[in-house]
Amino acid sequence: MKRERAAAIVSRAKGLAAEIRWLLGTSLSAILLFPGNSAAEDASQGAQIAATCASCHDPAGRGQAIPPIVGLDEQRIVKAMLAFRASESPSLVMHAVALSLTDGELAVMARYLTDRANAGRQP
Hints:
Layout: H1 2-33, H2 38-54, H3 74-85, H4 92-100, H5 103-118
Helix pairs in contact: 1-2, 1-4, 2-5, 3-4, 3-5
């Protein structure tokens, strides 16, 4: 039973990583094809990555099984993601997600989530 559950978690993590790679590839293509200002590009990229986060984390902050990320500050989000990447925090799914993102992608995602929270908006 544990082996099946672990396999399901790893499969889900691989699916999320593939989804994130696709979103990032699409974002990069849009940035290369339609150059604009850097802040707008960061916000767009942050929004796309955050949309992936919202597929598991309740955007309203009511998550019970999966901790909410709404209202966390930028540094706390980045620090948590780096801990998942380094396997310092136990989660196979978040480890895979953190490995799929560059430091820059983590920063724009965290900035986007914090900006949305400060503006009183959901991701």
